[in-house]
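Hi F.,

I've been meaning to write this up properly since the lab meeting, where we talked about keeping a consistent format for the predictions we share between groups. The idea is simple: the sequence comes first, exactly as it goes in, then the structure tokens exactly as they come out, then a line or two of notes. No screenshots and no reformatting. I'm using this chain as the first example so we have something concrete to point to.
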Amino acid sequence: MVAPDVRARLFRHRLDREATWIATDGASMGRRWQAGVRVLLEAVDRAPRRGEVWAYCTAEGKLVVHRYVRCRDGLHVFQGDASFRPDQPVPTTWLVGRVRSVTDGTRTWSPRRRHVMASRVSATVPAIRRRLRRAIHE
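Output, unedited:
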């Protein structure tokens, strides 16, 4: 397995030449970001800002696309819009780049902060329904 910092550096090297579209998988970014949407990653010569969506490498070598929350003790904290808990903090060397655009094949949008609350609510409502059903049937 390639170390996360090496993998991130290889991605950044590619982004330094040109912004790159990559396909995503998973539902942690909410209903609007279904598995298979593509994101345009771009190189940025600064630290992430709160609310921006970035790609980073995990210790397991996965490339993750989540929203930036904060920097704590020199480590960067991200969280999926539909996730209840933040991800494990990552060092700067594991950061890849910022998401400039998102497309589902029919429309393209900017990953702005205003969609976060709608994503969290849409993820919360089904969870509350499941808990209520369990409580009623117990």
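Notes:
The chain has one domain: 4-137.
Helices lie at 4-17, 115-137.

If this format works for you, I'll send the rest the same way.

G.
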